Amino acid sequence: DDLSPEARQNFLLDLVESNPNDPIHHYLLGIALNETGRGEEAIEQYQAALQLGYENPAEAYYNIGCTYIEQQRFDDAVNAYNQSILANYELQQSHFMLGVALGELGRYEDAIAATRNGLSVEFDPQAHFNIGRWQYLLGMHRTSIESFDQALTDSEDDALVLMWKAKCHRDLGNIDEEIQCYERVLDINAM
Question: Could you give the CA distance from residue 141 to residue 134 in angstroms, rounded to a whole number?
């Protein structure tokens, strides 16, 4: 695929014009429009694909949700991710992104629940990190540390996770553990 994003977009526009009832062309055009920052037009194309019976509605709703996240339209994103989950519960990233949207709305308990639903499908360290952040914001520092430990199971060298874990230890008065976390961060940054 040697086409620039604009050339790909123009190619897909021609396909949609020549065959306006093909949902796949609308879906692909939505992706191309989103790549060039034309989010509203991308959403229109995803919706057209859905109206024409696109074979994977969960993907289309997921992409609509991601576009809404980019536009900071978090309530709309929540609705899109819920539609995606209704269409295919197994689409793990819809659960995780629903959690992100809910977290942006300050609905941390709902964000945790949505993200845990995604974890029931498949393990993801980033999801555990997000849960830990929301638990921290809810004042659940001990539980946050457990979530951050889960996030570190793939790689103990994640400085951002370690910094959040250090904050939890600091807030709990666990100064030695806080220092250990920061020392690991310094070691990571020295590499």
Answer: 10
**What predicted TM-score, i.e. pTM, was given to this entire model?**
0.88
Per-residue burial over 99-110, b = 16 or more CB atoms within 10 Å of its CB, e = otherwise: bbbbbeeebbeb
Q: What percent of the chain has pLDDT over 90?
A: 88
Cα 144 to Cα 24: distance, rounded to the nearest angstrom:
42
- Entry field: residues in the chain: 191
Contact 152, 162 (CB under 8 A): yes
Beta carbons within 8 Å of 63's beta carbon, 6+ residues apart? 30, 31, 34, 42, 46
- 152 contacts 140 by C-beta, under 8 angstroms: no
Amino acid at position 40, single letter: E
At residue 154 the predicted structure's pLDDT band, cuts being 50, 70 and 90, is: confident
Q: How far is CA 157 from CA 56, 112, 119, 161, in A?
A: 37, 24, 22, 9
